[in-house]
Amino acid sequence: MNTAENESYSPKKGAMISIKDSIKETVISFFKEALEKKIFDAILIPVKVPAGDSYTWILIEDVSLFKDAAPISPIMPVQGANALSSLTRKGKGNLKIAAIMRPCEIRAAIELSKLKQVDLENVHLFSFDCPGALPLSDYVKNPSKGEEIFESFFTENKWNEKSIKPICKMCDNFSLPNCDLHFGILGTEKDKLLLIPNSIKGEGVLNEMGIAFKNDLSEWKKKVEEIKEEKEKIKKENYNNIQPMVEGLDNLAQTFAKCIGCHNCMSVCPICYCRQCYFDSEVSKFTSDNYLLRAEKRGAIRFPTDIILFQSGRMSHMSLSCVSCGMCEDVCPASIPVAQIFSYVADKTQKVFEYQPGRNVGEPLPLKEYKEEELQEIKKLVNDSVSQE
Amino acid sequence: MKEQFTPKIVGFLCNWCSYAGADLAGAAKLKIMPSLTVIRVMCSSRIDPNLVLTTLLLGADGILIAGCHPGDCHYEKGNYYARRRFALLKKVIKTLKIDPERLQLSWVSASEGKRYAEVVNQFTEKIKKLGPNPIQTKPYL
Question: Could A312 and B53 be called an inter-chain contact, meaning their C-beta atoms sit closer than 8 Å?
């Protein structure tokens, strides 16, 4: 993706496509056509597993294998950015790939590209207006019911559905990430879909495929804004609920008391890309003397130890790039609202540097750049730290 | 009589400026409170937030990070990065309300022995007022 182009790009027109059978089939037939026309060599897309109770990422080259593909899947068992990272971590390769992912997955992919874990050069990113995902645990209990609920989002146009993940309920970033092409579902007529180019690269794809993009976007934009406003309200309310859970040592201890120290949240996090986490390493383990000493001082010591250290350490390591995708919460066996807590903290830390993860590929990570004159509040703290006599 | 509280402060001092400044303060026989345990690091930007959090959550009463003045870094820009990392860490700690006051960043050059003594003494006074780190009484953390 060319940064300079993308920075200035804002979509003005889109292509209106008629929906055949369903949104899913329409999107798939678009990709089939693109494969046949040799515009892409392969498509990275969620596909239903043979048992029918989950989805997985598949890189498809053969048109006939699209049978079980689901571009807009009801669940998010593996973060798309992780799949893309597995694919391109060691370099871009010669294949031209199209990947269709949720907006949060695209944002994570962009953050990973800044961390040199994803190479976006030969990848075309496709996204769509995301209605949210169902919690993994709910879905696996009854997949057919999950499918039914998810289907109704599109047929009955209910976007603030109660059954989606809590983090999705408060997601105000559900449309048009920094992708190449975007499928606009909202605000269009019932049998129509908007295909919106969001970069020069994306325009190129439409031109190659001979799809004209002359349709107006205002209805779609209006509807997106409308839902965004609603979601912003929910987000604010949610942050108000989360705040008391994480303020002060006692509340933190209570919130994370359930933590079993499995580190699932860290291992599924797309941003936690380190081959070995500090908290899994021997450096973070202490001798029994150390634990005994701590127990003696405090009266007792809890095992697994250093839960708050793990969580706050992760907050300071990855919160600047946290895309609030909710993977951590989905996999937490103790049902701690990790994603909502991280979203709350990330919102605060990102504001310090006016940074939005995944906003733009060309924007450097906050800790990788600096300005001589900045952070006035911190500068004042440093100056006030000593009064010269 | 109540036993007087002497805070335990961990100081991460950069090798090129602040550590040399501390050395100078010692050589000049300046009065410095015996509260600081010094850890020498090659650069203030080397301090991973985890180091600070570990120190704080294991019960240090205060943490001082000291480096060269902006523009004077031995590696040209390390302290600017350190300032950003500090801003991030401070925000995390502030959001979680784990006594952000116990964390301090200061700039001390190699020639500022006097300034070093003042930084340490004033920070120690501040921590004395705050009292011991409450974490030391919490078994479940």
Answer: yes
Would you say the C-alpha torsion A262, A267, A268, A270 has a positive or negative sign? positive
ipTM score above 0.90: yes
pLDDT tier at A85, thresholds 50, 70, 90 = very high
Bridge partners, A69 (sequence order): A47
Which of A247, A249, A272, A311 would best serve as a mutation to test chain B binding (most B beta carbons within 10 A)?
A: A249
Residue B11 lies in a domain: no
pLDDT for position A92: 86
Q: Which domain holds residue B81?
A: 32-51+61-112+122-133
- Residue A252 CA to residue A232 CA, distance in Å, equals 25
Residue B4 lies in a domain: no
Tell me whether residues B58 and A294 touch, CB distance under 8 A: yes
Closest CA in chain B for residue A307 = B141
Number of domains in chain B: 1
Q: Which residues of A47-74 are buried (b: 16+ CB within 10 A; e: fewer)?
A: bbeeeeebbebbbbeeeeebeebbbbbb
Contacts of A307 in chain B (CB under 8 A): 141
CA distance A383 to A364: 28
Which of residues 79 through 138 in chain B touch A, CB cutoff 8 A?
A: 80-81, 83-98, 104-107, 115, 118-119, 122-123, 134-138
Q: Give me B39's structure tokens.
A: 């850890």
pLDDT of residue B2: 61
- Tell whether B75 lies on the interface with A, counting CB pairs under 8 A: no
Q: What is the mean pLDDT of the segment spanning B32-45?
A: 95
The residues near B67 (Cβ < 8 Å, ≥ 6 apart) are B13, B14, B17, B18, B43, B44, B45, B73, B78, B79, B82, B105, B107, B108
Residue A68 has pLDDT above 50, yes or no: yes
Residue B138 lies in a domain: no
Do A129 and A174 meet the contact criterion of CB atoms below 8 Å apart? yes
Dihedral angle computed from the Cα positions of residues B103, B105, B109 and B112, in that order, rounded to the nearest 10 degrees = -50
Q: How far apart are the first and last CA of chain B?
A: 31
Q: What are the sequence ranges of the domains in chain A?
A: 3-237, 244-380
**Separation CA A378–CA A141 (nearest Å):** 50
Higher pLDDT residue, A383 or A82?
A82
pLDDT at A219: 92
pLDDT of residue A9: 86
Does any domain span residue B95? yes
